[in-house]
Amino acid sequence: MVDLSLLLWAAIPPLLLLGYYYYRVPFAPPLVKLLMFFIIGVISGILALSLEWIFETVVNSFVDWHQIKRSLPGIALRQLVEVGLIEEGCKLIAVVIPTCYLQRRYRLLQSTVFLLTIAVALGFTAEENWIYLFHDTASIFDRIIGTPVHAMFSAPWGYALGIYICLHTRLNRDRNFIFRAWLNSVICHALVNVLSSAWRYSLPLHFLSYGLFPFLLWMFWRLEQLLRKVEGKPAIILILDRTPQRRYWQRSLVLFALVLGGNAIFGLFLLVKILSPLSPSKLFDRDILWFIFSRFLLNLFFGVFAWGIYRYLRHSARRRYF
């Protein structure tokens, strides 16, 4: 029997995020259409899971695939040639086929195609959430944190597809742009999964896990930039200087802000993971309260510092731009 509470936890966070983008994007398609694409995304997730099972069954008949994927290089290979390719491929097909049908009947905007891509990605997330929660391989908190990740993966090819569909004259280089954007998504998808697996291994491989949240923060920034473009808004500029030395300095500050901000989020994530097994009464013990307070302040300091660097770069770029 299906556990209704798990089903709700799997579906509600992606639906809420879809609602946020629906109200944010101007000239958004009807909500019913978005929900249809959300359901198509769920179906694409089931298809991807089936194809991954078939892939592993076939490959395992030739090599010991289960043994290979236990090492970090094996995990990287699996994420690149299996998970990234299949999942991003299924999402792309789930957007292209119904979008081509709609394009024959309506004139689609670039923002519409981009939003439909987000809807499919979030439907895929809902299906993945259900699988993880049903098999108890991830907590509800983990899945809520990971809600926007598939949308961040698919943003590049969703943006490229929107440009291609809205063009009056389509050339081969426009199709190549979609392929390059899709390949970028596959690589980012694989890299995130590899970094999220690194914490299981001993040093120095364990340190790779500290690159996960900065990389996710950068992908979120990229999603926001692409969304601003399809909304017709100017991109947020952080690096704007004429001299190479100043540009290198500003790029270094951007990287430093991502490392600080990403690991501040990572620190808060770890804090919640550490405290989640404890009973509520234990949280009020003096030692535990001090631990919570000190860790929270430390990560808050790093987060505020990163935000300060971001505001400084925005102010500097705006001053030079105008």
Task: Using brief descriptors, characterize the structure shown.
globular; 322 residues; mainly alpha
Provide structural commentary.
The chain is globular. The mean pLDDT is 88. Helix 4 packs across helix 5 (110-134), helix 7 (149-166) runs antiparallel to helix 8 and helix 7 (149-166) runs parallel beside helix 9. It starts with a helix and ends with a helix. The chain has 322 residues and is mostly helical. The protein is 78% helix and 0% strand. It is built from eleven helices and no strands.
Helix content: over 70%
- How much of the polypeptide forms β-strand, as a percent range? under 5%
What structural class results from the helix and strand content?
mainly alpha
| Sequence stretches where pLDDT stays below 50 over 5 or more residues | none
> Shape, please?
globular
How large is the radius of gyration? 21 Å
User: How many helical stretches?
Assistant: 11
Task: Please give the largest β-sheet.
Answer: none
Oligomer: single chain
Distance between the termini: 62 Å
Arithmetic mean pLDDT:
88
Secondary structure: number of strands: 0
Order of helices and strands: HHHHHHHHHHH
